[in-house]
Each structure stands twice: as structure tokens, then as C-alpha cells.
Inverse folding.
């Protein structure tokens, strides 16, 4: 392998956030991953293969759609970036496919992933089926209950779904279980981390793979509306669809970047998933320093959200820095607001959004309307959430 | 045993006490049991630590429970959860440390966010005030441990780093040069937990030895007298046993069970 030309590295810190807080066993694997990505991303053959698959297999670029009835309802133009129309029904495949392709190039024969709502698990299972490699997905047993259809899909794709019974049996524990597997099997295994979290270089790689959302959106809105949006809005748990959307507009100071977290029962209760909105002392979770939910002792708190994908007490380190630096703004909406928005979008537009995405819509409906044009990341479709929403009626 | 301290390595009281305990053991290698502070509860864990000392331990590794311990297998992970549920706090476990440090050197093992929550300086000061001789933070690799190491050196606390079988040769000296008290040598690629058989200890111990001049202690996956003996045969200065003892600490009659098990390990290490 030529060590000559691109002796560069990926960002490992975003302001004070990020880093690599993992056992020594994993450090060489993270170095190897970083170098592999630097080489692959400047290799025209590799990127050509990824581009072709994203176009012909996944259906990129996804449309940017003017949601006329939502626009009427809120009194300004609302454009939807239709990641729900991508293969597997969410933005997660952008990242899972890119990482799986990279890992195969690195000679890894076994892939593991974590999943909360199941979208990243399905995306990983899909990419691994396509590439013919083994896939194991860790999923909290509570999430397996909430997202049963996605469990069936993963199994149909030949993936083994391993239930995680620790703690609250949700996303945090699934990530921990996947990291422990990786520590044990690091020689032949790649961990397809599904969000913009984790030790460096994961946040940078996930952003590089998800920024197509924002780059396409920018090009499309300029072509269709002839202008930039006032706001780019995305829901945020770990923050992969949000960082992908924000990346496209980062250098456009007139575009406000808004990340919508899960307020659960309310940010004034302990039952939420909104570490960026609530603030407090930064902490270390799953390998990076970021905004997290913790008690005074430094123990990680349980998050709560009706949406399994946002039910996580941490968030990506770059988001913590975007908040501190003032470039992006983070807000939170409650479970009830998300459910109301979920139903409203279904009836106004004939689109059933994921419960995660419904948080972004709740902000459009209930938040300030000081905008003339919004671009909203419709990060995924909501078939998986129907039972959960109907059960609340 | 050749003991040549590099003159440039900052010495401190904690490191000295640890090295004396390891090098001064009357066994073939020092016996270094791990216990989870506050498990099953604070009062019992003090007695478990005393039982380790009575059973022949040379040093104690005392875990401060953390909600998300990424380097630990199911046994230690579950013990941490129980300890937290039963009210174990940082100060509570340091109370255990204070009692045990009168008997033998104590090295506190916990995770980076527990350090982060207090700040490195206050963390070190608290440990020293509780009589701890050292600290192990498995998710603070050298790249992230600069601040803690500086404060630990200043406070007289030995910060013990880890090397793994995956650590490449060109990284060994980076880790080894930062070792205080001992170099924690991970015997297997993986997390803590009992494993059958004894893997190739020789190679990992030889690599550790080349990386540092402080004592080399082997841990992860060691639970039987034969494995402890195999580690000593391969030249380990110390042997760390964790999950097996933590499992006994959660069973019936934990104090007697841990004492008997430590005694048995000690017998395995007799000259």
C-alpha cells in the first residue's frame, strides 16, 4: 500500500469534543480504519463503485419535494428531502453501504452493527447481503418488541439478530454490546457504527457518507426554488441524518441549522433524550466526549423517547461543537408532539414518516415560523412505527 | 529479578508501594485480585477485600462501578449494575479503598467518564486521600490520558496503562514509557471474563517486557491456579484475577468463597 501521497488524517476533535476513549485493543483497528477510508475515498474506482450502487441499487439522488399542503398549513414553503424513498426506507443505507464496501476492501469477513429503531440494522443487513458477507446485529430486546417488523426483515436478509438484555434493553446497550464484540473479534470484524457517534474516525466517516443528503439538497433547492432555505431541519439522536443535512449548508451563513431532539415526556422531566438541548457537563460515552445525559457521579442516565432511534443518552461530538460554536441550534419536542406530527404528515401529504422524523415535523408545525423556506430531512418512512402509534390511541 | 528504573521516569509514592509489593512477593508472581467496590454491597465488599488479603493477595484492584463498562464481560458488568443499584457511589467505594489500603496497596480501576465527571486533578486527589496507590482507566489510551497522567504523577498516584495483543510493535514503547507501578498486559484480544485453557502467555509477556522496565502483570481470562502458574512460568511479575472472584462475590457465603479461591490461586503460585 503506497504510504506516499495522502499522508493525511481525519478530524478526531470537534472543538473539545470527540476523541478516542476506547480500550487499547481497538486503537490499532481505528488507525487501520482511518487509513483505509483516506485511501478508499481518494480512489476513483472505489468511489465509482459506491456512486453506482447508490444510484442504481439505492435510488439516489433522492427527490426534493415541495410539500404543498404542509406549506399551506404553516404559511411558508416546506421542502422534504425524501430519504424515505431510498432503498430500505431510510438514510441509513448511505452509511451502511459505504462502510460495508470499505470493510470488504479491508478484507474483513464479518460485520457487526447495532440498531435502535431497526433502520440501521436493516440497512446493514441489506448491504451485507448484497456484498455476500456475514452480518450480526445487536438490538435491545425492548427495541425488538417495539420494532418487530424490522427484526423480521433483518432475519429475511440472512442476518443474525442478537437480543441485548442489559440495562434498559435499548440503543445504548446495543452499542455497548457491539463494541464488546468488536474488542473480541477485531481481527476479522468491522463494526458498522450507524450514527455520527463513537471514537474517531467514525464521526468523520459517517458524516462523509451521509453528506450526500445535504449536498444534494443544496443543489436541488437552488435548481427548483432558485434560492437557499432559511432553515435546514433534521431530527437528531446520534445525529447522522442531521450532520449529513447540515454538511451541505455549513458554509451558507444565511441558512439556520436546526436539530430536533426527543423531549420524551418533557425536558423538565428525567424521561427524555435531549442531551444537546438540556446542556450540562460534557461526558464520555461510547468512545467520544460529547453532550450526554449523566448524573453527578458520572453514571450514564437512561434516555427515553417513543422513538427507538432517538432513545439514546448521547449524541455525535460534532453536534456538541456546532451547538457551542453557535452554528447550529438544538431544540426538543415531546413524544406527544411527535405522534401528532406523525398523523398530521400522513393525512396532509400521504406520507407516513418515521417517528424519528416526526420530531423534525413537530418543530415545523409547533416551532417558530420565522422562515420563508424550510428544507426538512425526511430521514425515513414510518411503516415500522404504525403499531407503536396506534397503540397510543 | 533485574530492577533498573529509568532515571527519567517520574517516581512517586504510589508507584513505589506497588512495585515493592509486586517485586517483594514471596510467591513466583504477585497475586493481584480484582474486586468490584460496593458489590454486593459496600459493607460486604470491605470484608471481601480483607478476605483477599487474608488469602494471600499482594495487591488489590478495586473497581469503581460504571454504568457502561466497555472493557468488561458480563460478570463484572452485571456486578457493577448491582453495586450501583445497591447505592455504591464514588465516595462510598473510596471508603472501601481507605480500609483496604491499610492492609495492602490498592489500585482503583474505573472508566474515563468517572474521571471526567470530577476532573483529573480532583479525581487523583480523592484517590490519594483514600490511600490508593494507583489507578487503571481502560478506556483512556495514551492519546487521551495526558492530563490524567500529569496530575497522577504530581499527586503520587501510579497511572497504570494497558497493552493488548493487538498493540503493534511501534506502539509498545509509547505505552510502556507511560507505565507507572506496573504494565497491565491484556492476555487475550477481548474483554474481561473467565476462559478455559491458557493461551500463548509467553509472547504477550515478552512483548510487554521489551516495552517497559516496570513490573509486568498479566490479566483478562485468568481464573485457575494452572493459568496463574502458566503466567508465572512465562515470566509475569504479577497475575490479575477478576471475573471468577467477582462471580463468587455474588454467590452464597461470598467472603469465605473468595478467601478460599484466593488461597487456591496463591497455592498455585507457591514456589
Amino acid at each position: 500500500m503506497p504510504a506516499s501521497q495522502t499522508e493525511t488524517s481525519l478530524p478526531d476533535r470537534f472543538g473539545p469534543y470527540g476523541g478516542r476513549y476506547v480500550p487499547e485493543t481497538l486503537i490499532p483497528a481505528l488507525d487501520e480504519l482511518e487509513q483505509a477510508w483516506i485511501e478508499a475515498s481518494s480512489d476513483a474506482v472505489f468511489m465509482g463503485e459506491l456512486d453506482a450502487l447508490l444510484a442504481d441499487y439505492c435510488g439516489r439522488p433522492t427527490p426534493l419535494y415541495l410539500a404543498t399542503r404542509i406549506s399551506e398549513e404553516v404559511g411558508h414553503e416546506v421542502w422534504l428531502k425524501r430519504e424515505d424513498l431510498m432503498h430500505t426506507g431510510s438514510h441509513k443505507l448511505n452509511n451502511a453501504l459505504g462502510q460495508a464496501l470499505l470493510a470488504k476492501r479491508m478484507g474483513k469477513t464479518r460485520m457487526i452493527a447495532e440498531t435502535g429503531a431497526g433502520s440501521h440494522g436493516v440497512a446493514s443487513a441489506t448491504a451485507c447481503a448484497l456484498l455476500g458477507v456475514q452480518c450480526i446485529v445487536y438490538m435491545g430486546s425492548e427495541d425488538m418488541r417495539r420494532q418487530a417488523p424490522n427484526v423480521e426483515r433483518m432475519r429475511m436478509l440472512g442476518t443474525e439478530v442478537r437480543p441485548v438484555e442489559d440495562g434498559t434493553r435499548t440503543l445504548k446497550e446495543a452499542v455497548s454490546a457491539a463494541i464488546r464484540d468488536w474488542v473480541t473479534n477485531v481481527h476479522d470484524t468491522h463494526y458498522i457504527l450507524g450514527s455520527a457517534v463513537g471514537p474517531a474516525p467514525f464521526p468523520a466517516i459517517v458524516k462523509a457518507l451521509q453528506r450526500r443528503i445535504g449536498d444534494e439538497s443544496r443543489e436541488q433547492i437552488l435548481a427548483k426554488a432558485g434560492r437557499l432555505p432559511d432553515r435546514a431541519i433534521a431530527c437528531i439522536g446520534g445525529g447522522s441524518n442531521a450532520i449529513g443535512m447540515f454538511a451541505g449548508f455549513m458554509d451558507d451563513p444565511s441558512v439556520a441549522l436546526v436539530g430536533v431532539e426527543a423531549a420524551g415526556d418533557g425536558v423538565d422531566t428525567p424521561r427524555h433524550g435531549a442531551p444537546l438541548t438540556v446542556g450540562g457537563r460534557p461526558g464520555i460515552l461510547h468512545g467520544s466526549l460529547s453532550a450526554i445525559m449523566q448524573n453527578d457521579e458520572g453514571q450514564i442516565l437512561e434516555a427515553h423517547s417513543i422513538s427507538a432511534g432517538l432513545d439514546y443518552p448521547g449524541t455525535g461530538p460534532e453536534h456538541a461543537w456546532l451547538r457551542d460554536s453557535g452554528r447550529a441550534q438544538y431544540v426538543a419536542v415531546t413524544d406527544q408532539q411527535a405522534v401528532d406530527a406523525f398523523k398530521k404528515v400522513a393525512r396532509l401529504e400521504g406520507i407516513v414518516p418515521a417517528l424519528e422524523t416526526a420530531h423534525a415535523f413537530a418543530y415545523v408545525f409547533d416551532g417558530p415560523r420565522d422562515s420563508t423556506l424550510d428544507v426538512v430531512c425526511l430521514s425515513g418512512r414510518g411503516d415500522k412505527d404504525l403499531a407503536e402509534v396506534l397503540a397510543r390511541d | 529479578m533485574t530492577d533498573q528504573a529509568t532515571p527519567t521516569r517520574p517516581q512517586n509514592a504510589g508507584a513505589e508501594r506497588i512495585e515493592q509489593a509486586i517485586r517483594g512477593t514471596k510467591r513466583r508472581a504477585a497475586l493481584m485480585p480484582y474486586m468490584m467496590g460496593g458489590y454486593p454491597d459496600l459493607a460486604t465488599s470491605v470484608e471481601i477485600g480483607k478476605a483477599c488479603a487474608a488469602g494471600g493477595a499482594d495487591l488489590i484492584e478495586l473497581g469503581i462501578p460504571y454504568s457502561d463498562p466497555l472493557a468488561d464481560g458480563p460478570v463484572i458488568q452485571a456486578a457493577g449494575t448491582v453495586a450501583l443499584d445497591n447505592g455504591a457511589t464514588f465516595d462510598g467505594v473510596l471508603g472501601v479503598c481507605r480500609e483496604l489500603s491499610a492492609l495492602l496497596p490498592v489500585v482503583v480501576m474505573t472508566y474515563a467518564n468517572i474521571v471526567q465527571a470530577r476532573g483529573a486533578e480532583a479525581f487523583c486527589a480523592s484517590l490519594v486521600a483514600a490511600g490508593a496507590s494507583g489507578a487503571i482507566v481502560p478506556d483512556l489510551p495514551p492519546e487521551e490520558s495526558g492530563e490524567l497522567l500529569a496530575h497522577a504523577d504530581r499527586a503520587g498516584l501510579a497511572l497504570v496503562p494497558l497493552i493488548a495483543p493487538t498493540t503493534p510493535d511501534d506502539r509498545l514503547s509509547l505505552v510502556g514509557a507511560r507505565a507507572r507501578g506496573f504494565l497491565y498486559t491484556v492476555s487475550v484480544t477481548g474483554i474481561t471474563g473467565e476462559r478455559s485453557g491458557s493461551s500463548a502467555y509467553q509472547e504477550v509477556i515478552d512483548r510487554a517486557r521489551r516495552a517497559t522496565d516496570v513490573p509486568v502483570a498479566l490479566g483478562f481470562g485468568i481464573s485457575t491456579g494452572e493459568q496463574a502458574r502458566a503466567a508465572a512460568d512465562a515470566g509475569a511479575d504479577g497475575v490479575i484475577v477478576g471475573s471468577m472472584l467477582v462471580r463468587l462475590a455474588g454467590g452464597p457465603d461470598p467472603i469465605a468463597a473468595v478467601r478460599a479461591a484466593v488461597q487456591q490461586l496463591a497455592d498455585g503460585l507457591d514456589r
Chain A touches chain B through 36 residues (CB under 8 Å). The first strand of chain A starts at residue 13 and ends at 14. The mean pLDDT of chain A is 96.
